[in-house]
Amino acid sequence: MNTLPVLLVLLLWGTIVGLDVVTFPQSMASRPLVAGTVSGMLIALVTPDVPLNAIFTGMLVGSVLELYALDVLPVGAARYPDYGPATVAAVYAALGWRPEAGLGGATAVGLLTAVLGGWTMQMVRRANAVAIQKKAADLAAGDSGAIRALQLGGIRRDIARSAGVTACGLLLGIVVWPLVPSGTENFRWVSVVAVGGGVAAALGGAIRGAGRTRRLAWVMAGLAGGILLVGLQ
Amino acid sequence: MNGRWRAFLRLFAVQGAWNYERMLGVGMGYAAEPLLEDLGNADPARHAEAVVRSAEFFNCHPYLAGLALGATVRAEYDLVPGQQIIRLRTALCSPLGALGDQLFWSGVLPALIAAALIAVCFGAGTWVVVAFLLLYNLVRIATGAWSLRTGLAAGASVGQEISRSWLPKAARWIGPAAGFLVGLAIPLVGAWSLQWARDAQVAVAGAVALLGVVLSFRFRYTMTSVRFALGAIALAVVWRWTA
User: Fold this and answer.
1) Is A147 within 8 Å of B29 when comparing Cβ atoms?
2) Is the pTM of this model over 0.90?
């Protein structure tokens, strides 16, 4: 599945969602559920002969990574994993396997790419600060052109960062592919662990985020309701 | 396109040059530029000072930045002393950050994404992703437009306008709703993702989840969810390859 058109389309989409995380326009297209589902749709569009259901795979991988993303509050100066390009790479990594076998490897690719994304985001922020220091005199003189140049420079840096992170993630997906024989029982167990990790992330994040406020009671009520619904299904 | 519209559109990229020195400062300066154009024609000296102030250190929630932008620009036109405008900007940082984080990052976003996940688990198709994007951005754009309009109208008295507005009430209300929906979504997504699994595999997933939560609280600063998951996945790979 590592055909060039698929890779190019996913690289473009990964760059768009990478930019969306913080810089522009923060529309939440970078949320894993959205990024994953749209990745699946794009793959299905570019290669209609995909043997497995790409849209379902995108939604599945996106939903599991969304559990991990629920643990993250994208607050200002904090360093947090960048799940946008990571999800695009993870969906690519999951293709070609049966979804239940590919989910574990795809989640690992997604998490590694997300960590790389968070790290590069800090590099861009430092580069922005260096650019500002270089234009300190112009800023002190009230030069609007300097502000414009700094702003556009920051956006350009983030475009390059997003493209780079997506490319690394896709490369990781290509590397992981041949390691796993499709549909093996062994890799279903890896998927089981990946889903368990996602549930741990979302639940831990929800409890921590609630603190000892009344929100905690609502989280627990929701959890009880969810477990009940699962039992009834 | 008038200055207000251009400023509104530029606010979508207010974090474009985010950095650890001025944080949102440069983005605010970029968004303020079209609003300050008339001041440049009327009073070039004041305009230059206003441009300098507009790009200084600032930080708040990006969706509510319009409140601070509008208020400070209006204060510039009202010829409020520069030091007072700087104090106004500084005073707005924390409340706008806290309110925005509570309303959007801890409220609207998790609530809507959890609702979308629940819908996916009950068989909703790709339309749910479109619905999520539309609804979220409707709330976000409406809030951004209201912020800029309110800031420009209120000027230096924007603090009173914020405390009288719907923002604090909405921030209080949305938290419990988000908590409930996220709580509801977690087991449903777990079960939906494992619909192919045998009972023993579901039990293992539950055990991994429980262990992850316990470890994340026991080793709060070192055991992040990503580290735990990557470690667990690596152990699972080794276990299955050597089994």
Assistant:
1) yes
2) yes
Contact A151 B17 (CB under 8 A): yes
Which residue has 């749910």 as its token pair? B128
The conformation of residue B108, written as its DSSP 8-state character, comes to I
What residues contact residue A153 under an 8 Å CB cut-off, 6+ apart? A128, A131, B17
In angstroms, the CA B190 to CA B195 distance is 9
Could you tell me the residue range of the domain that residue B54 belongs to? Answer: 4-242
Give bridge partners of residue B23 from the DSSP assignment.
B58
Closest A-chain CA to B140: A27
ipTM (interface predicted TM): 0.95
Q: Does A70 touch chain B (CB under 8 A)?
A: yes
Record: contact B201-A192, CB cut-off 8 A: yes
Whether A166 contacts A173, CB under 8 Å:
no
Count of domains for chain B: 1
pLDDT per position as a tens digit, B81-123: 999 999 999 999 999 999 999 999 999 999 999 999 999 999 9
The torsion angle over the Cα atoms of residues B70, B76, B82 and B88, rounded to 10 degrees, is -20
